Hints:
This protein is α/β, with parallel strands linked by helices. The chain is 42% helix and 16% strand.
Amino acid sequence: MGQIIDGKALSVVVKDEVKAEVAELEAKYGRKPCLVVIIVGENPASQVYVRNKVKAAAYTGMESQLIELPADISEEALLGKIVELNNDPKVDGILVQLPLPKHIDEEKVIDTISREKDVDGFHPGNVAGLWLGKDCIVPCTPAGIMRLIDSIGYELKGKNAVVVGRSNIVGKPVAKLLLDRHATVTIAHSRTADLGAVCRTADVLITAVGKAGLVDGSMIKPGAIVIDVGMNRNAEGKLCGDVDFASAEPVASWITPVPGGVGPMTIAMLMKNTIHCFLSRQK
Ligand code: NDP
């Protein structure tokens, strides 16, 4: 029987750490870290995400601001707003919620956020820093996954890790973080031949795909640790991951649920990243 890695409970621990850090930083520097979250348009899922991010910031006691912009805002106007925030000394972190409306080039937006304020860790300078092993902002979801693995005291050195999914925001960066911990890492994707056979080699299996039930218990090595990043809706409209929990849980030694696993940790690590940005800017 797999034990549950409780991301919701761990996210509270992380947010409490941040809360204590915010108080210390305010005492030392005379101001609190400040996170600005920008949402463009009215995508309902994005609205839930940004609300949760601002709520988490309030919990930690840091300053935060939600900027809601209309879906038809021009790319130029959005970039102008970002430049304004880049130049605002009171702002430490800037997050533009993705996806953006089609007429706006996401890459341009990511490139425009100054590297020092890039709390998402998506800026090319931070991506390069991650791959070169230099000081950088690590993307929130991969950072949260590592914290979940650390929370059970698991030693990654020499273990086989399989990451299913190769996106720039989850799959690739988490693979690099696992590599940094001396795991032997395989990245699987949509063209992987025999996904089941690849997954069964994993001591640690991380799924970041976006397909409900893609991985079931028959694809999991007995005793493996399973981290499910996927966020999908099943036929009944309920939130679920990429892993079929019912068949996977009896095979795994540890497993994250959806909801209540990686999701809350992503937001908690955003708070950590805001502190990181604040501190980098003091130097
Ligand atoms: P992307 O759509 O960018 O990437 C999905 C990846 O899955 C791609 O690399 C794709 O392969 C691969 N893939 C697709 N189909 C298969 C298949 N049949 N077998 C193996 N691999 C496959 O997604 P993201 O990385 O942005 O997100 C992945 C999931 O994680 C989503 O459900 C998203 O909602 C969720 N998510 C959750 C977060 C959280 O905080 N909990 C944060 C971020 C994402 P290829 O490259 O070949 O196309």
